[in-house]
Structures are given as structure tokens and as C-alpha cells.
Design goal:
Keywords: Membrane, Transmembrane, Transmembrane helix. The chain has helices at 2-28, 31-37, 39-58. The protein is mainly alpha-helical.
């Protein structure tokens, strides 16, 4: 039970950190730079991946 709650907390923390870093990246990078680097795709995939893990842990 404890490890399950700990993992849920870690997943939520990862979502918050991922969102924060994505927000900071979007403020700093130009649109051309975003297209060339592809970090927006990384942040999108990371968010979906963590959401899937969280949904599995919550039993949704």
C-alpha cells in the first residue's frame, strides 16, 4: 500500500516537473528553434507516458 501511494506521488511530481520545464522551454525558445530541436514532441510524449502510468496505478 505504501509503495503504491509513493509511486502515485512520484508520478504526480513528474507531471508537475515536466509541465514546469515545458513551460520554461516554451518561454525561452523561438518557434524556429522549437521546430528544429523537437523538444515539444519530447515533452508531449513524456506527459502522455506519465499519464498512462498514473492511470494504470490508479486503476482507470
Amino acid at each position: 500500500m505504501f509503495s503504491s501511494n509513493l509511486l502515485i506521488g512520484i508520478y504526480v511530481l513528474l507531471l508537475i516537473l515536466n509541465g514546469y520545464f515545458w513551460y520554461k522551454y516554451n518561454q525561452r525558445a523561438t518557434s524556429d528553434q522549437k521546430k528544429k530541436e523537437g523538444w515539444n514532441n519530447y515533452y508531449s510524449l513524456a506527459t502522455v507516458f506519465v499519464l498512462v502510468l498514473l492511470a494504470q496505478k490508479l486503476g482507470l
